């Protein structure tokens, strides 16, 4: 199905509406920050696996340090979600987490699961932005 040009954008039955009373993007940024906190906690819990199962490349202290550093970066990035570079930071952290497969396979599997979560969050953000542009959010007509 082909997309319509911008000038033919189908509006909702009530028209374009006004700016929403509550910014939906603020809520999505909160979800992103919460996801980074959760992912950091999961990475820290993965340290128990790294310490007990020696299946990674390099010495255990290096694997431990890498996973710990990525988790700390995730905690720090959770507070930078208003920054313009937040999207690049978020995806960069996912790549760093995926590289953690060399520390331990379990870390890589967790990273793949969270990459799926991040894909879904960005998909939802795109849908909300599209609905805002078309005037389909209920708060645009109150």
From TrEMBL:
<feature type="transmembrane region" description="Helical">
    <location>
        <begin position="91"/>
        <end position="121"/>
    </location>
</feature>
<dbReference type="InterPro" id="IPR025327">
    <property type="entry name" value="DUF4233"/>
</dbReference>
<keyword id="KW-1133">Transmembrane helix</keyword>
<keyword id="KW-0472">Membrane</keyword>
<feature type="transmembrane region" description="Helical">
    <location>
        <begin position="61"/>
        <end position="79"/>
    </location>
</feature>
<feature type="transmembrane region" description="Helical">
    <location>
        <begin position="30"/>
        <end position="49"/>
    </location>
</feature>
<dbReference type="Pfam" id="PF14017">
    <property type="entry name" value="DUF4233"/>
</dbReference>
<protein>
    <submittedName>
        <fullName>DUF4233 domain-containing protein</fullName>
    </submittedName>
</protein>
<keyword id="KW-0812">Transmembrane</keyword>
């Amino acid at each position: 199905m082909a997309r319509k040009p911008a000038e033919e954008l189908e509006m909702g039955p009530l028209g374009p509406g006004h700016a929403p009373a509550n910014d939906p993007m603020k809520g999505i940024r909160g979800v992103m920050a919460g996801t980074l906190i959760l992912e950091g906690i999961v990475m820290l819990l993965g340290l128990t696996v790294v310490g007990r199962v020696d299946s990674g490349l390099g010495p255990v202290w290096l694997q431990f340090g890498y996973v710990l550093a990525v988790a700390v970066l995730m905690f720090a990035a959770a507070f930078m979600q208003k920054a313009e570079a937040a999207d690049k930071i978020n995806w960069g952290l996912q790549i760093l987490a995926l590289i953690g497969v060399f520390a331990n396979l379990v870390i890589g599997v967790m990273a793949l699961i969270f990459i799926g979560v991040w894909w879904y969050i960005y998909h939802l953000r795109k849908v909300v932005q599209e609905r805002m542009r078309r005037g389909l959010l209920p708060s645009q007509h109150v």
